[in-house]
Amino acid sequence: MICAGCCVRIALGDPSSPKLLERGTEEKFGIGIVSRAELALKHYEPLRGCPGIEVRIHATTLYNPIYRFDDVMLVNTHVWGLSAFGAPVVHLRRLVDGGLFDTYSQSFEAVWATAKPAYE
Questions:
Q1: Distance (Å, whole) CA 110 – CA 108
Q2: Are strands 72-76 and 89-93 parallel, antiparallel or unpaired?
Q3: Which residues, given as ranges, of the chain have pLDDT below 70?
């Protein structure tokens, strides 16, 4: 797999994190959320060692999945008690500095800073 000039960063919830189990309880999904996290890691494992792609795991509270593409972002908002598939998705574009786009970008960067490599 070649990703010329592209940087891909994927931050996933750590399957061993108590915060992940807490989210599973909130969503009435229980330990099934742990299975989803483990499965995601298995699906991304073929990217291990691919230049320009980094996968990390984190133990922070899972608030909002963020999908960013340069100055465009999709945010799957967290609604207490609902799984991600049932919650709204917000489409954001960076129009000004310091707006909502930058708030979510800073959130991702803060989580990324706490994350560790998924595959060691």
A1: 5
A2: antiparallel
A3: 1-4
pTM: 0.84
- Predicted confidence at residue 38, as pLDDT, reads 93
CA–CA dist 99, 83 (Å, integer):
27
Q: Which of 73, 80, 66 is nearest to 13 (CA)?
A: 66
**Strand pairing report for 66-69 and 116-117:** unpaired
What one-letter code names the amino acid at 21? L
**Which of 115, 101, 98, 5 lies closest to 60, judged by CA?**
115
Rounded CA-CA distance 47/39 in Å is 14
DSSP state of 15: T
Q: How far is CA 60 from its chain centroid?
A: 11
Q: How far apart are the first and last CA of the chain?
A: 20
Residue ranges of alpha helices (H) inside the chain are 18-26, 32-44, 100-114
pLDDT given at position 74: 97
Calpha distance 75→63 (Å, rounded): 10
